[in-house]
Amino acid sequence: MKKSTIVLIVVLAIVAILALSLIGTYNGLVSKKEAVTKEYSNLEVMLQRRADLIPNLVNTVKGFTAHENEVIDKVTTAREHLVNAKSIDDKQKANDELTSSLNALMVVVENYPDLKSSQNFINLQDELAGTENRISTARRDYNNAVNTYNGQIKKFPNNMLACMFGFGEEKYFQADVKAQEVPSVNF
Question: What pTM was computed for the model?
C-alpha cells in the first residue's frame, strides 16, 4: 500500500471515531434532558393531584367552619396560582404558597373536633398526606435528574457540545425558606 493511502485510512478512522464520539455525547445529553422533562412532568402530575384534592377539602372544612373564610380563601387562591403556574419558578412559588395556606388551614381544623372526626375529612386528609409524600418523591426525582443533566452539560468536552446545540442549565425545585416556619393564625 502506498503511504498516502495509509495516511488517508488513518485520518478517516480518526474522523469516524470523533464522529461516533460526538453522536454518543449528543445522544447522551438528549437522554439526560428528556429525563429532566419526564421528571418535571411527574412532578406536575403530583402537584395537579394535590390541587384537585383542595376543593373537596375546602368544601368539607366550610361545612364545619362558618367564620374561617379568610384561611379558606387563601387556600383557594393558592390553589388557583398552582393550577395556572407555567414555569418551574412559578410552580415553585405557588407550591410554597399552597403549602403555607394548607398549614394554616390545618391549624384552624384543630379548633373543630367534629371536623377532625368526620370520616370524609379524615379520608381527604389521608389522601392529601399521601399526595404530599408523592410530591416530595417527585421533587427529589426531578432534582436528581436535573443534577445529572447539569453535571453532564458542564463537563468537558460535553460543555462545548452542549453550548453548540443549545443545551442549557435546568433549575432545581427548591423549598421556600418560609416553608420551615410554623404558620401563625390569629383570630
Answer: 0.64
